[in-house]
Amino acid sequence: MKKALFIYPHNFLMRNMGTNIRVYNIAAYLKEKGFQIDLFALKNFCSPDFLKKGDENPDRLVANFYLYDFKNVQAHLRSKGHVNALKKIVSKLGCTFNTGLQDWTDPGMRAMFEDILKNEYEYIVSFYLYTGNLLKDRKIRAKKIIFMEDFLSVAHYLDGSNTNIGASIESEIRMCSNFDGIAFISSDEKNFFEKVLPPTAKCYFLPHIMRPNVRNLATQRTRDVLFLGHDNIYNIDGMSWFFANVYPHIDAHITIHIGGNICGHISDGYPNVKKLGFVKNVDDLYGQTKVSICPLLNGTGLKIKVVEAMNHGIPVVCTARGVDGFPDKTRNGCLVTDDPKEFASYINSLCTDEQLRLRFANEVAVYADMCFGYGKTTKTLNQIFDIEN
């Protein structure tokens, strides 16, 4: 049995946000292929109940949990002058620094990691570059892989937490160089990094992993519009823009459903808006939805909410940021506009014209199969983890 150590701060078994779902899907696929998955994570990070929630471990997906206290990382960063930096990382997907990406690898974490390595893993799999220096100048037999979910330097520049983008990109490149393989969720970001990384670093395009589902595009849909989102700064800003600029132009009879933690940031003053909160069965929700929206104004990586909607054959109305990471920005079936009135017009038309909805439902489904299909993504996973097809 091959053994893989995942280095990921969250409890991905909760599957309560896009990145957790992605890590879960990768782990589930490797488990199907006979891998043992261990998790090196952080307690007192975003999930203070990590130990309790860690029991939600269906089919023993994670064999062993190793938890390092995030409070030690905070103290380490404060001692280096990064006062209150981690608060922003947790709440705003950003951090305060002026020279480069933060290094979370304090002496205690490195000592714990050294002890964990005695288990002799074939693969060390990381998902946050902040812990990338655990592998710096270290002779490890294991294949070292990093899954790049975001272009961190750009993300921090966009949220204003770092104005020195050049130094940040330089440090991001250095940290990536610690790995043998780098899997990018975004085609755009893969194209950039593979030009500047050492030739020994193998780059892959690995979008969101989605299992095939049975689509009945013509089935009766009871929910007009859907937005699913965690309460990160990009979703909050995007929905603020939507309600201020797009919502006034949407037909009053159209109902807008909002799911996820973002609901806590949506006013109760909209008569045709229904807040769903945490959605346990996303597949059922998608099966009832006519139109999915992604009004984000910024961000990096790939918008998982967009790809999942496409995989379910749901037309997507989005801003230009909604198709970030797509290999093809224009022929993907999405209706893309940054103009509020046009955004609303697309929604109104798709909700009232069934033939139009079916046309775009088919277009996004075809593109999803071609670009993000399960066979395509698992073929890339097989290459990364040396699995025979």
Characterize the structure shown.
The protein has 389 residues and is an alpha/beta fold. The chain is built from 14 helices and 13 strands. A seven-stranded parallel β-sheet has the order 3-2-1-4-5-6-7. A six-stranded parallel β-sheet has the order 10-9-8-11-12-13, sandwiched between helices. Helix 6 runs antiparallel to helix 7 and helix 13 packs parallel to helix 14. The longest helix is centred in the C-terminal third of the chain and has 19 residues.
Which features would summarize this protein structure in a list?
single chain; 389 residues; alpha/beta; Rossmann fold; 7-stranded parallel β-sheet; 6-stranded parallel β-sheet
> Which bin fits the share of residues in helices?
25-40%
Describe the sheet with the most strands.
7 strands, parallel
Kindly, what is the distance between the CA atoms of the first and last residues, rounded to a whole number of angstroms? 17 Å
Number of strands: 13
Helix and strand run: EHEHEHHHEEHHEHEEHEEHEHEEHHH
Summarize it.
This protein has 389 residues and is α/β, with parallel strands linked by helices.
Q: Would you spell out the secondary-structure blueprint of this structure?
A:
Layout (H helix, E strand, L loop, with lengths): L2 E5 L10 H15 L3 E8 L6 H4 L10 E6 H10 L5 H8 L14 H10 L6 E4 L16 E6 L3 H7 L6 H12 L4 E4 L2 H10 L5 E4 L17 E6 L4 H14 L9 E4 L13 E5 L4 H6 L1 E6 L9 H8 L4 E3 L16 E2 L3 H13 L1 H19 L1 H11 L5
Parallel strand pairs: 1-2, 1-4, 2-3, 4-5, 5-6, 6-7, 8-9, 8-11, 9-10, 11-12, 12-13
